[in-house]
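This section describes the prediction task in plain terms. A model, or a person checking by hand, is given the sequence of a single protein chain and must write out its three-dimensional structure as a string of C-alpha cells. No templates, partner chains or ligands are provided. The sample shown here is typical of the held-out split.
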Amino acid sequence: MPGEVMTTKPLPLPLCGTDGGRSFAHPQEKNDCTIRATAIAFGVPYEEVHAHMAEKGRRPRHKTRRAVWEPVILQYGAVSHSYYGGKRMTLARFLRENPTGRWVLHMRGHVTAVVDGVILDSSHQGAKRWILKAYQVTKVPLEPGLTTTTEKA
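The expected answer:
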C-alpha cells in the first residue's frame, strides 16, 4: 500500500527467562545450559538432571560434552532430529515450523529448551542461530507425586 514502509527486521523471538531451578539447587553452577534445558523440557528437577550428568562424567562449573549430555537426554525420552548438511535450520525458522511440543535444541556452543514455541532460557538467542540437532521430548512429564501405570507406587 502507498505510504507503508517495509522492513526486513525480524520480530523478537518469544523468550521466557528462567534458570531451570539452578538458583535454588546449585547457585554457584555455571556452563550448565544442558542441565537447564533438559530439566525444563522434561519437567524434571534441576538437581536430578545435574546428578545424572555428573554420573556420566560432567564436572561442576565446566561445559558438558555432547558425549555426556546426549545419552542422558535420550534416556529421559527424546527423539533426535539432525540438521547437519542441507539447508540450515535457524532458530526463527524452527519456531515457525514447530509451534507446539517440547524440545531441547543443540546449537554451536549452547543448548536451550523450547516449549510450545517459546524459548525457555536464561539468555536470548539470535534468530539466525543455526540448530545442529533438535531433540523432541516424547515422554510427557508427570505431575509431582504421580506414577505411570508401569511404575509401582
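For orientation: The radius of gyration is 17 Å.
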